[in-house]
Request: fold
Amino acid sequence: AQTVTQSQPEMSVQEAETVTLSCTYDTSESNYYLFWYKQPPSRQMILVIRQEAYKQQNATENRFSVNFQKAAKSFSLKISDSQLGDTAMYFCAFLVFQGGSEKLVFGKGTKLTVNP
Amino acid sequence: DTAVSQTPKYLVTQMGNDKSIKCEQNLGHDTMYWYKQDSKKFLKIMFSYNNKELIINETVPNRFSPKSPDKAHLNLHINSLELGDSAVYFCASSQVPDTQYFGPGTRLTVL
Reply:
């Protein structure tokens, strides 16, 4: 069974600094997708970044970038120049293909607080 | 324009009642999903529908019955509500295989 592990339940960072959130996953598949979603207090699930496993280049979206280590099954998220609006729960998710459809398997989340 | 919408956003009801949550997407996606987020924030899939056909039923009690009248809509009906059903329910959609986009969530509180 595919699993996603986020080992940091909570983290905090000072505004303008850089923080890295960890994620590891377990799968026997060779082709898959990985995502980071953000859930602010408004509870909306917002896509932060996505990585396709066949792409060796790490994905970046403005201040957000990932360190994708396929052999190690690691998918960490780096947030540069942290802003107060980055305060949220961050979920790492793995896309599993199943029976003609697909489902996201989520980690338990990391609560990130950005301090002024 | 809202891509994935859900109604209602909040639902408070008594144990034993029956309630429905509606979901609509205007992204033209062919697959829709229901996820449940429990009190510890853990998200888990419940159902997925592809072009109105049930694809995934993730061992959800049969008190939960999804219905998809067309590929833009996926509703969730819950019979005989129990205290343990209190959670946030998210609808999502995607064009398989690709990113899933989530609705705003429905916070269900069963008293």
